[in-house]
Every structure is written in structure tokens, then in C-alpha cells.
Known about the structure:
The chain is an alpha+beta fold and 450 residues long. The chain is built from 13 helices and 15 strands.
Amino acid sequence: MSSCKSEFKGCEYVAYFGGEVVNPNNPYVLFCKDNEVIDTLKLDENNRFFTQFDSLAPGLYTFKHEPEYQYVYFDKNDSIMVRVNSKDFDESIVFCGRGEEKNNFLMELFLKNEKDKSKMFEYFDDSFEDFSKQIDATFAKETLFYTTKKAEIKWSDDFDLFAKASLDFDYYSKKELYPLVHKIRTGEDLIEKLPANYYDYRKTIDFNNVALSNYAPYVMYLSHMLNNMGTINYHNHFSEKDLALKTNINKMTIADTLIKNKMVKDNILNNIAFTYLLEDQNMTNNNTFLNTYKKFSTDKSKKNEITTLCNAIQMLKVGSTLPEVPLIDTNGYSVSLANLTKPNTVFFFWTEKAKSHLEAVHLKVIALKSKFPQYNFVAVNINDSEEDWKKTLDKYKFKGVTELHCSDFETIKNKWAINKIHRTIILDNKGLIKNAFANIFDSQFEENLK
Length: 450
């Protein structure tokens, strides 16, 4: 690790960024601004990278080592080094150099929030009084941590926007989630029982903040808020799929009313669309949803990811041929779907990074094989290196399952619309798509195999 000297010419915006990736998944680190790649940084033989920016505007950036990413904030003339282990990405990140303190603060607050989230679900079952006491106590501790570090580091107002957002929106998200999750888990509807001032914090929120438009805590909060506000009360009047359609159209309508800034609104609409389109595969409903989305969205570019997703979904209709994607077998040979898609085939997905899932899904498949011997079960590994994939297979030694690895995650994501690890694709006795959007853990999954 190294750091640059702190003397700079006053008018220059020279900045440095570098570091080391332990156990890299691929040979690159991407440096991005608002989801656009600014620079592709190649790892050297020691898995290190380094670059100089002759002119880098102060602000929030992201660095990505696929499939993970994290934020890094640059003030004028910062020189930041980062060390990260891809096996434990977020927990391993340490910044050093000029600008290290504020970035280490952001990471520490992020990890505090993540640790707290793992405990939160049990509190959603609690009464309003007990729930409020718990989240208010946690918020008070984190606010003290924030104010102490702010006084100690003396960071800029521009950075404070993100620091305060990370603190506040995590707290606000819990408040939005509480009535929804409480009802799902306990059956108790608290909407009418909440204090009249429960949502008063919404009055303080700038729904058109462009600087925060790609910042995860802000975007996540707006999504939770719209889920809450978009709920249809008289849901018994609709089927499950029609209710999902009406709820998501309602959410987009509210977003269009609340958010006037095009960039912020488009990001939120895209977030709603991604979630909906990967959950509901009723093509008639999808078209109705898309017509509403196109009415509200101003993103008409060819790069629009929703358009890419919709095209993928159209290619995965019942009776279609599954599109070709790059797959290799355990010997390193390319595998063609033409040789793989026997009648009655089930594709399922896993990654070494989700150990509980990889174990559970293979056990589930082994059980299914005994009940449905006419099916060929194919496991597709994604998001891991070929080396890690093979090490995992050597460790577990799963039997009776065809194990393949996808060497290009972007292609399989775009062609097979893979955004969730629980997705399962089922082919019929002619080798054509029977259901491309099944969930192997769904209680009704076996009905798809009959």
C-alpha cells in the first residue's frame, strides 16, 4: 500500500486512485460515476491497480469488481488507496491515503446498518411501541457516531449530503417497512393505528435531489416509501397477478406526481420496473405495465435497461427456444444448448457467494430427481471464477446433476433475464420453454414438472 504526498498546485483537480484486490474474480476494477464507466483499471501480476486522474470533479464515485461494488468519495486532490478481498467484499474494505477518513466512515456506517438489518426482522413482529423504542435507540447511537466523526474529520458540506443520507434513509426505510412487514408476518393491520405524525419525516425529504439519484440508501428508501404508499387496500377484489399490476402502476403514478426531476424519476421508475417485470410474467399484464412505464419515463435511449429486460422476457415466452449463452463444462469445454436441452430439462442457478442457497438448491434438486426421473437437472454457476467454481464442486461432490459454469454474466443476465439466484427455467418434452420464471422453492413448483 502507498500514499501520495499532500502538496498540490491550488487550481488543479489531479487525483489518484489505486489499491489491491485479494482473491480477484476477474482482472479488472471499474471506476464509475452514476453507473457510467469512467475508467477500466487492469490488475497487475500482484493484483494491484493504480491510476492518476488529471482532472477529477469532487463527488461520489463507485468502484466495481464484478459482481460487487462500493462507493468512494473524492474531494479535490484526494489520493485514495483501497484494499479489498473479493471473498468478503464489504467487510474487508479499508481505505488509506488523503481522503481515507471520510471513506472509512461511510464504510463503517454502511456495515453498522447492514448488521442492524440482520436483526431487524424480529422487531417487525413487535408492537408499535416496542418497535419504535428499538429503532429510535439504534438511530440515536448512529447519530452520535455521525456527529462525533463529523466534528473530528471536519468534512465538506458536499460530502455531508451522503453521510447524512446514509444515516437518515436507513432509519426512514425501517419506518416505511414496519406496517407492511408487520402485517405479512403477524396478520395485524396497523395502518389505522399508527400515530398521526408517524410519517412526518416525509415532509423533510427532497424527492428531486439529483446528487442522490444513484445513491443506494436514497433510492432504496424511495422504493420502500412507494411500496407503502402504493398498497391497494381492497386487495380481495383482485387476483394476485392483477393486484401486482395495479399496485405497481399505482407506485409509478405516485412517483410521477412526487418526483419532477427527470433523472431521479427515471431511476425510481426503473427500480419499480425491474422488480415487477422479474416477478410477474403475465404477458398481457406486462404490456399494460410497460405502456404506463413508457408514459412516465423520459429515458428513451437504446441503453435503457428496461427495454433490454423486456426484450429478454419476450424471448423467454412459453413455447420459445431458449437463447444460446456461453457455458462450459467441468473439463473447460464449451457446451451448446442444442446438445444440452434434452426434453424435460430444468436449469437452476447458484453462486459460491451464497453458500446457504447453493446447498439448499442442490438438496432440493436431488430430492426432485427421485420424484421426477424423466427430468434432466442442469446447474449453472454464475458470478464466480472458473477456479472457485471447480473448488466448490470438489468440496461438495454433488451427484446426478449436470454442472456448468457461465463465463459471461452480462450475456446470461441479458438473454435469460437472470437477476435473482432463485430463478429456475423449465423446458418441456420438446425442449421448448415451459416456464422461464419459476422459483424452485415455491410451494407450487412441482406442478410445473407434471
